[in-house]
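hiii so um. not sure if this is the right channel but i have a protein structure encoded as tokens and i wanna go backwards to a sequence. like what aa goes where. can anyone help
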């Protein structure tokens, strides 16, 4: 009877280890492949195809909020979203494809406390830790985080850092989707 129990326990142990390894692999893959990665790739491809270095769009969920990006091909994607006190001015600029002007207006004259600013180094989506080089960064209101993987330096716990990263990645993905829709028109 003892001989029969031991193979069953061994099988259970092997299966448990397999599940654990698969879970760890999925967690590492999720960390390495943020949701914004595919969205950033799609946006930069659309901008390259249209030969654009900037793009802007109105937020369909809020007529006073806009999003704009400045694209430095292969190098950086700078994205800003904010409320604007005179939305009709930005709407007119978007219609006339003055996207860089919208980017400048949102960067410099947005409604206080409403601005979100993202620097995506390498145009590859937000990364929680840079492979090499300069990290991506996120600013929302008074919060600013450099995603360099050093949460202690940012005076955060690792959990708070990763929660902020997840929130930033989700918001960035939504902003990029709006810009991609505009670029494809």
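sure thing!! here u go:
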């Amino acid at each position: 009877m003892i001989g029969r129990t031991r193979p069953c326990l061994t099988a259970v142990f092997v299966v448990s280890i397999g599940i654990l390894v698969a879970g760890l692999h999925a967690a590492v893959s999720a960390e390495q492949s943020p949701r914004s990665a595919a969205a950033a790739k799609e946006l930069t491809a659309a901008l390259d195809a249209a030969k654009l270095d900037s793009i802007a769009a109105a937020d369909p969920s809020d007529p006073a909020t806009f999003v704009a990006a400045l694209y430095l091909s292969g190098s950086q994607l700078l994205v800003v979203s904010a409320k604007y006190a005179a939305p009709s001015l930005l709407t007119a600029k978007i219609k006339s494809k003055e996207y860089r002007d919208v980017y400048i207006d949102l960067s410099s004259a947005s409604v206080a406390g409403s601005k979100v600013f993202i620097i995506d180094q390498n145009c590859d989506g937000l990364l929680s830790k840079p492979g090499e080089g300069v990290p991506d960064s996120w600013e929302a209101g008074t919060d600013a985080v450099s995603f360099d993987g050093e949460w202690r330096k940012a005076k955060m716990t690792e959990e708070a850092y990763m929660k902020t990263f997840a929130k930033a990645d989700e918001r960035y993905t939504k902003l990029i989707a709006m810009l991609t829709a505009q670029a494809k028109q």
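oh and The radius of gyration is 21 Å.
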